[in-house]
Write a structure and sequence with these properties.
Distance between the termini: 38 Å
CATH topology: HIT family, subunit A
GO molecular function: catalytic activity
Number of domains: 1
Shape: globular
Structural class: alpha+beta
InterPro entries: Histidine_triad_HIT (IPR001310), HIT-like (IPR011146), HIT-like_sf (IPR036265)
Strand content: 15-25%
Order of helices and strands: HEEEHHEE
Strand order of the largest sheet: 1-2-3-5-4
Protein name: Histidine triad nucleotide-binding protein
CATH class: Alpha Beta
Largest sheet: 5 strands, antiparallel
Organism: Prauserella muralis
Length: about 120
């Protein structure tokens, strides 16, 4: 892993401002600057791991903290009644652009399907 700080590490260190929604000892949640839904919040562990696979292998408890924080964000944002989505993009082909694992919490409106559209139900 590159020694250079990622954007998220700079947000965690409060070097870059962010609209913080929720924080614990191990996680930080803040609004995405390019939202893909009415509500779009990123949940990041304060300790850096490249992606969710690396985090799961190294620290399952921290991964659980990220998921717990994602659910708390959904509660705070009023998403639990109608539903919400939690997404981890893992590496370039999945659309990961910041290589510090993060969960996207999306909701607040009817969400479409995701992935490549095939025209088939399922």
């Amino acid at each position: 892993m590159n020694d250079a700080d990622t954007l998220f590490e700079r947000i965690i260190a409060r070097e870059i401002p962010a609209d913080i929604v929720y924080e614990t000892d191990t996680t930080l949640a803040f609004r995405d600057i390019k939202p893909q839904a009415k509500t779009h919040v990123l949940v990041v562990p304060k300790q850096r791991y490249r992606n969710v696979a690396e985090l799961a292998a190294a620290d399952p408890r921290l991964l659980a903290d990220v998921i717990t924080s994602a659910h708390k964000v959904a509660e705070l944002e009023g998403l639990t009644e109608n539903g919400y989505r939690v997404v981890f993009n893992t590496d370039v082909h999945a659309g990961q652009t910041v290589f510090h694992v993060h969960a996207h919490v999306l909701g607040g409106e009817q969400l479409g399907f995701f992935g490549r559209y095939t025209g088939e139900a399922g």
